[in-house]
Write a structure and sequence with these properties.
Oligomer: single chain
Distance between the termini: 27 Å
Number of domains: 1
Number of strands: 7
Largest sheet: 7 strands, antiparallel
CATH superfamily: predicted glycosyltransferase like domains
Strand content: over 45%
Structural class: mainly beta
Length: about 110
C-alpha cells in the first residue's frame, strides 16, 4: 500500500502556500476484502485519516484502488503488528483494474 499524506505549510516569504506530498511504500498482508473496504495487517502503523493506494496481485493480475484508513489498532502481543481497516474511495466507478471490480466479480450481489 502506498500511504500518501499531503500537508500545507505557510512560508514567511510572502505567505506563499506550499504543498508537499509524502509517499511511502508499506508491505501489508491482505486479511479480508469486501465491496466497501479491506482489512490489512502490517508491521507499520497507518494513521486514521491517511489516504493511500492498495496494490494487490490476484490470479496473476494486478489491481489497484484508493483507500482511506478508518481504523488502526495495534495487535496485543505481536510486537509491531497493526490491523488497519481501509474504506475504498469512490471517486470513480470501478473499472476492470480496481480491487473493487475484482471483489464484485467474486462476491454474489
Amino acid at each position: 500500500m502506498r500511504n500518501q499524506t499531503c500537508t500545507d505549510q505557510r512560508i514567511d516569504r510572502g505567505n506563499q502556500l506550499k504543498r508537499g506530498l509524502l509517499i511511502r511504500t508499506i508491505s501489508i498482508q491482505l486479511v479480508d476484502l469486501s465491496l466497501s473496504g479491506c482489512l490489512l495487517r502490517s508491521t507499520d502503523d497507518m494513521p486514521v485519516g491517511a489516504n493511500g493506494e492498495l496494490h494487490v496481485d490476484m490470479g496473476g493480475k494486478k489491481y489497484c484502488d484508493a483507500v482511506y484508513v478508518t481504523r488502526s489498532l495495534q495487535l496485543q502481543g505481536s510486537g509491531d503488528g497493526h490491523d488497519v481497516v481501509g474504506e475504498f474511495l469512490w471517486g470513480s466507478r470501478p473499472d476492470g483494474g480496481t480491487v473493487r471490480s475484482k471483489v464484485r466479480s467474486i462476491v454474489p450481489h
